[in-house]
Amino acid sequence: xxxxxxxxxxxxxxxxxxxxxxxxxxxxxxxxxxxxLLAVTVALFLSTGAxxxxxxxxxxxxxxxxxxxxxxxxxxPGDTWKIYLQASDPSGKMKYIYAEIEQPxxxxxxxxxxxxxxxxxxxxxxxxxxNTVTAEKSLEFTTLKLVVxxxxxxxxxxxxxxxxxxxxxxxxxxxxxxGVFKENNLGPVMIxxxxxxGDGDSSPITD
Length: 207
What we know:
By secondary structure, the protein is an alpha/beta fold. Helices cover about 25% and strands about 30% of the residues. The protein folds into two domains: about 1-60; about 65-205, Sandwich (Immunoglobulin-like). It has helices at about 1-25, 30-60, and strands spanning about 65-70, 75, 80-90, 95-100, 110-115, 125-130, 145-150, 160-165, 185-190, 205. α1 (about 1-25) runs antiparallel to α2.
């Protein structure tokens, strides 16, 4: 962006010098010539600003996007819950998969951050997973929401994908639609589920 600004500034100065040389060879004819020079100069600055505005708008619109997602709405306590994602970022700067759990009953959970491998930072397809192996039977019929979004580490985030879940001893985890997602392990959601009213634990960042 700085290079573009310098380039257009140099072009503006170059054209201004050319005009001054051209009109400097002959005597000024008064106010009419001055108005011409001012009009050309203003036009140059306006066109430069418009072009830079377009580039700035296009650059700022490049953010990570979750294209498709899927997760079973119910699992048994102790199962590993797979959350499938397909995401992209044209700039290739996706850095973290963020996950938050919302659970009725006042249970508080910290934010989980799963680092995205360099080879997946432009496009990714696979699953993150939540391990419920430590979940006790007291979690049966517990409901929660997992909120997932992707960030590039510079303040740009995708729209969130929200996954409701119920834990039930009679549940069977559903499989994703065939051919949509890769069976690629993207990393864990580092949160340990607790009964309603408890405090969840997590490791803030995973490699």
